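Objective 1b. Sequence-to-structure analysis of Guanine methyltransferase Trm5.
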Amino acid sequence: MSADMIAPPVNHAMKVLDRSFFQKTVPTSAARIFNPKNIATCRTELHRAQDAWLNARIAPIRLDPDEERARVGGKCILLRPEVLHNERSGTVGVIPYDLRLDYSYFNYLEIMNAIIPPSDQSGHDDLPTGFSMVGHVAHLNLRDKYLPYKHLIAAVLADKNPTVTTVINKLDNVGSESAYRTFQYEVLYGPDDMDVTVSEQHCTFSFNFANVYWNSRLQGEHERLCDMFQEGDAICDVMAGVGPFAIPAGKKKCFVWANDLNPDSYKYLLEGIQKNKVADFVRPLNEDGHEFIRTATADLLKSEHSVPVFPKKKISRKDPNPPKGPREPLKTLVRPRLFSHYVMNLPASAIAFLPSFIGLYSTIPGISANEIRRLFTPHTETPLPMIHVYCFSTKSDDNIAEGHDICRRISRELGHEVTPATPELQIWDVRDVAPKKRMFCASFRLPEEVAFKGVED
């Protein structure tokens, strides 16, 4: 059976989606089952003989095409079109069957192939198939050549993805986003409703997608970094957004100071902290990131905070002898005085924030650098913090060139040489952003020479 036999009808002149156009009748054969009790046995035999129609999208057992037989529950089993019709043979009879397909059968790519004419000899190899889902919103980034078909694309995409109610297309060029990483968009399908709710790492985030930054394709990256955090760690999230790192880390009972410059991100971060019940562990702020790195570090050193951890099991109201008095905590977590990790997820410019780490521990009022130095290894088991800085780099065939380029940029901002051979350095390839652009995360331990710069031994 050729693919054309079950392909949808073609209309390259369609400008407005006409779902009724996509009707097709495929002449084939069916095995009429005379006794409903024999359906399972006959189906097994037909599969064994390779005569059954094998198509996961088409139900093989159908009502008999004869109305009278169908009225009393008569069934048949679809067969390959090559099977010839004949009279009754044992428990079945092979009959002609007109299989009717409509718009609901055909998938997104099949409809797109039928509507959009091939642009060149490559045919439809680059049809827009990728999109991001943020709650009920599908986010497209269409190439110019597909803009004439944007409403058709959006309508079919929504039809074939039941959870999609709004489809938008990004209007900005890559790299021209605002300081808050928001973007201009147009609604291609559905209401202009950008209030979304998404779930990640067992946490719930609600926000207006038009006013804050969120990228669902970074879910794996959020999980990867959060897996590095240990219960009781102190985390400094410099560009926290609505909290995709901070709130899951708070769920792990890490102490997180989460900051974002965007007032809307800060608002939804506050709501997310309450919704996910991590207020004991996550402290939200709305400051400039350059200043925040220093103020958060100083404030953490000077403040104290502890959280009792209680058993997860709740006391049943039906318990005839419930324990009296306040519950006893399993343990008490004391917040460290030093951050274990600094996270800077602003790939367009995060590297430019690195100068804030120069002399980080040598300029804190009221605490001498030598006193701070004694808090770190070898005097204690506390190492200097890990810095996780996100950035973009030009794409190449391998990541060696990108690694050297990223290290040069980090070295320039820190005033200290960092190379691909630096111990504990990891340059993680996060994802493709554009045909010649990739996103990376460079993780390295803050050099002592940088952190205590300006302090004489």
